[in-house]
Amino acid sequence: MSQWSQVQQLEIKFLEQVDQFYDDNFPMEIRHLLAQWIESQDWEAAANNEAMAMILLQNLIIQVDEQLDRVSQEKNLLLIHNLKRVRKLLQGKYHGNPMHIAVIISNCLREERRILAAASMPVQGPLEKSLQSSVVSERQRNVEHKVSAIKNSAQMTDQDVKYLEDLQEEFDFRYKTIQSLEQNDKNSALIKQEMLALQAMLNTLDYKRKEVLSKIGRVIHEIDVLMSNMLTEELLDWKRRQQIACIGGPLHGGLDQLQNCFTLLAESLFQVRRQLEKLDELLTRLTYDGDPIPVQRPQLLEKVNFLLYNLFRNSFVVERQPCMPTHPQRPMVLKTLIQFTVKLRLLIKLPELNYQIRVKATIDNNRRFVLCGTHVKAMNMDESANGSLSVEFRHLQPKEMKTSAGSKGNEGPHMVTEELHSISFETQVCLYGLTINLETSSLPVVMISNVSQLPNAWASIIWYNLSTNDPQNLSFFNNPPAATLSQLLEVLSWQFSSYVGRGLNSEQLNMLAEKLMGQQVSYNDYQLSWAKFCKEHLPGKSFTFWVWLEAILDLIKKHILPLWIDGYIMGFVSKEKERILLKDKTPGTFLLRFSESNLGGITFTWVDQRENGDVTFHSVEPYNKGRLSALPFADILRDYKVIMADNVPENPLKYLYPDIPKDKAFGKHYSCQPNEVSKPSDGGGKGYVPSVFIPVSKIFNDSTEPHSPSDLLPMSPSVYAVLREHLSPTAIETAVSCNLPHS
């Protein structure tokens, strides 16, 4: 089943998450129509290779053309229209930057895998529960309801101001009419009656002025209360959700809803400001003793301007945190002289501001680093698929400045990966006579000068964003706080779901907890130190817990990803636990686990039974990335042979724990059929018979522990079959043992 087919079977709450990251940059209809083709391409590699990205973009356009021909024959007008639009988008937007579409598609596929992994997990962790609480959802609905009510109130006040203006014009006309009469006429009874009517009208005007000012005051008060409480909480919650999403957590949404609220409030405040300006205009035409306008209007206008300043300042946000396109799953880790991207948005979306706001990017204030590349750009509504007022910097590069001695500060392998920096942005908004200076900053970033520093730098990013919601504590690692173990384990599971497409279950997390804190630990409220996580070596090892875990992630990503996604690698299980699991199983039952003593190693252990009925266990020396580069792991499991003393070589691996036939579990991942006898001509030239590598181990009957497996022996399946026909098992054993390493 394709990944897209699995996505379509998700519950509605997960489908809503999928819907959030498909937009006009990569429309969902293309994902749907070209599902299998899209999933068969290596978009992640193309994201770092412009030539490959251009080829994939051209092939994508060809695929769209083929779909367009098909739907044209079916006369599906709507789909024809959408496909033509998509084709124009692909050719126009990405032709000059094909790696951008590769990054987008790669990110979408990765997010799908993360959501599929989250959907397969039986229980949400504490962090994810806190982000999706019913209290938060209820507050979101209340904010939207109150903003709508405020907008309606401001519009109703507009009608009151218009009525007041009409009433004053009538009063002004009637008053001027009387003033134009001769003195004799003014003494008539009719005129005296009219003067009484004008006095009554003036009283009404006074009442309406007070009423309008009161309504304006209430609107301003409601906006003030909303901004000070619920809207501020909503914005802080969104920023917290962004932090969590950056370290692999659930995709954060809600920014469009916040934009709608901010924009409506800004429109309401500007509307109130115009109403106050209209009152000032009415004041210049008519005033009187006890007139409320000159007393109340200045205070109200000052409050409106104050709220506008605060609203604009809060609306300037970093929509997408700094990230190198080459490492999309490691945001906020920046390598010197390597480009990174960052996107900002102004949540107040007003047409008058399009291309009028120029944003400048800088880094730190200590002059240790500078930003190279285009660091001043204008915000606009054209580049974003949803038409938001935003700006994306795509060509920024951090560069470390030379010290006065002529050498660079900490450049090189010793650059401190716990040192935090900040990318800052500033701009100025000039609108309707207001000038507002805006500033915002990215979450703290870690600078590296060598890619080998990336694992530890990423550990710093994880720890910071897990432990604090303070967006700018650059001295955090001077005294890093402890983290709740239960939350840390949840984040570690996210590393697997976001990076390799499948999270960790409770048994796997229990093993990690034991590795961090010791046997039988109750980790619900346990506090883990930063040193224990990333600084101190594991007992008896020359590496830290995080280095060990990061090596496993790298191994999965590069060599055993399909097997991991299928869920056939138990992975995190101790030697003691694996024996408990296997001891009562059918001989030949095996499981796959990650090595605890070798970085980035995977091994398999199987259960066997001696003639006297005793149960034995055998584990092979862990396979690392070097050996797995020579032979796929699924083929190793298929072809693995054991030579027992005086016995014919055979594959001891029969059932994947608990009882899945090996070929049923791994058959679809085998690269070829091992038993097909190749003809000399099949070698592709010079008459050689193609050879394959067969992993072989030798086990002695008087030992319960296996010797280390040999290097992979270059023997073709056909040759091995011939040997079995013409040689005795002893002869084969003697020949192979000559090639086995001696320990």
UniProtKB/TrEMBL annotation:
Cellular component, GO annotation: cytoplasm; nucleoplasm
Pfam families: SH2, STAT_alpha, STAT_bind, STAT_int, STAT_linker
Membrane-spanning segments: none
PROSITE patterns: SH2
One example of a Gene Ontology biological process annotation: type II interferon-mediated signaling pathway
InterPro entries documented for this protein: p53-like_TF_DNA-bd_sf, SH2, SH2_dom_sf, STAT, STAT4_CC, STAT4_DBD, STAT4_SH2, STAT_linker
Domain SH2: 564-666
Keywords: Acetylation, Activator, ADP-ribosylation, Coiled coil, Cytoplasm, DNA-binding, Isopeptide bond, Methylation, Nucleus, Phosphoprotein, SH2 domain, Transcription, Transcription regulation, Ubl conjugation
Superkingdom of origin: Eukaryota
Location within or outside the cell: Cytoplasm; Nucleus
CDD domains noted in UniProt: SH2_STAT4, STAT4_CCD, STAT4_DBD
Any one GO molecular function term: DNA binding
PANTHER family named among the record's database cross-references: SIGNAL TRANSDUCER AND ACTIVATOR OF TRANSCRIPTION
Family to which the UniProt record says this protein belongs: Belongs to the transcription factor STAT family.
Protein name in the entry: Signal transducer and activator of transcription
Species per Swiss-Prot/TrEMBL record: Copsychus sechellarum
